[in-house]
Amino acid sequence: MQLNDLQLRNFRNYQDLSLTFDKNITIFLGENAQGKTNVLESIYVLAMTRSHRTNNEQELIAFDSDQAYLKGTLQKRNNQVPLEITLTKKGRKTKVNHIEQKKLSSYVGQMNVILFAPEDLSLVKGSPQVRRKFLDMEIGQIDPIYLYDLVQYQGVLKQRNQYLKQTAGEKKVDPVYLEILDEQLVSFGAKVLFARQRFVNRLEHWANALHQKISQNKETLTLHYVSSVPFEETAEVATIQAAFLEKLKQSRDKERFRMSTQVGPHRDDLSFAINGKEVQTYGSQGQQRTTALSVKLAEIDLMKAETGEYPILLLDDVMSELDDSRQLHLLETIEDKVQTFLTTTTLEHVKNKMTVEPAIYYVSQGRISKEPVTTNPDSKEPLQ
After folding, report:
1. 56 a known binding residue?
2. Phi/psi zone of residue 336: left (φ > 0), alpha (ψ -120 to 50 degrees), beta?
3. Which end of the chain is more exposed for a tag (fewer CB within 10 A), N or C?
């Protein structure tokens, strides 16, 4: 798939921006805090309906504006698909082919994107919450049903936690009501666990192949889904449901004391091992970065296998964070097959390593041009 064009109105520091893309690799070049990342963020929002940088959608709307508007034309095989998002203080409105989409699962997955930013290098060393979010965002793009199950699970989880807090200190609780909540939690939660385990198994296949290439066949990378619910990697949904329900019963006293649900997908994690040793604990910084790079790049081939099309790759100032060897492996993976949008403050790390000629946009103070931007008022007016 390919994004043919992008239109922004009152998004971050862009009042009115219109760009077209005809190259496989597009570079946004400029100093820091000029608006490069805002462009990549807008593409991410157009795909996922939300930002990777903030949970407050109001921050995406330009100052002194009531709403922001994003539009792009997606090329999918032989079809062009217009995507539109309007952000207001009351919420968001999404459209596919000019038709409003009421459900998140009906919109997300139209345009698949993979974002790789410097903070993603901490995927290995970051908190379990970071890795759970990684799983949820990536699986949600290729499996709309997963998003539905996850949202339902989170809704029941909130109800259950509220009930545990309300009944704290009481000798008795309503067993029937709690059993109903348990059954609903297990029903949706088991499907989430099954999808996550399947995704991790598939991701490991692609990530290990890349990792071995980067390490010159010296290291083998394995991924393990660490669940608070005990189940085998090959377990079916029904088996996971039974194990989940049993674990809830065993944790009942502990949960009433802590006033929150102690087992389930919201408590799980993802671990990485190189040659059998856990990377989080025993890996060097270089191994941790290589692992993160292998996992992120593995998503490209995994999404192609799952959806039949390559995703769009967003590289936000990540090249300067990688050494020459990892830069080369990244570029070899994406060139000639993945549409890539890349931000950087210098071409030093990028252009001389590419075999294809990229399109370059120069960014300065929220203005974008195909020519270097200058401060001379008599210079050519930048493209808006």
Report:
1. no
2. left
3. C
Quick one: DSSP state of residue 139? H
Region 284-289 average pLDDT: 87
35 is in an annotated binding site: yes
Q: Is 60 helix (H, G, I), strand (E, B) or coil?
A: helix
pTM over 0.70: yes
pLDDT of 184-200, one tens digit each?
Answer: 999 999 999 999 999 99
Instruction: Give the integer Cα–Cα distance in Å for 223 and 357.
Output: 36
Short-list 234, 250, 239, 213, CA closest to 326: 213
Residue 31 known to bind ligand: yes
pLDDT digits (tens, 9 = 90+) for 308-363: 999 999 998 888 777 777 788 788 777 778 899 999 888 877 766 777 788 899 99
Annotation-wise, does 232 bind a ligand?
no
Domain boundaries, the chain: 1-112+309-384, 123-307
- Is 123-307 CATH 3.40.50.1390? no
Cβ-based burial of 355 (10 A; exposed 0-12, middle 13-18, buried ≥19):
exposed
**Closest C-alpha among 116, 50, 124, 115 to residue 87:** 50
Is 33 assigned to a binding site?
yes
Question: Do 315 and 340 form a contact (C-beta atoms < 8 A)?
Answer: yes
Q: Determine if residue 161 is labeled as part of a ligand binding site.
A: no
72 marked as part of a ligand binding site: no
- 381 annotated to bind ligand: no
Quote the tokens at residue 219: 């290291």
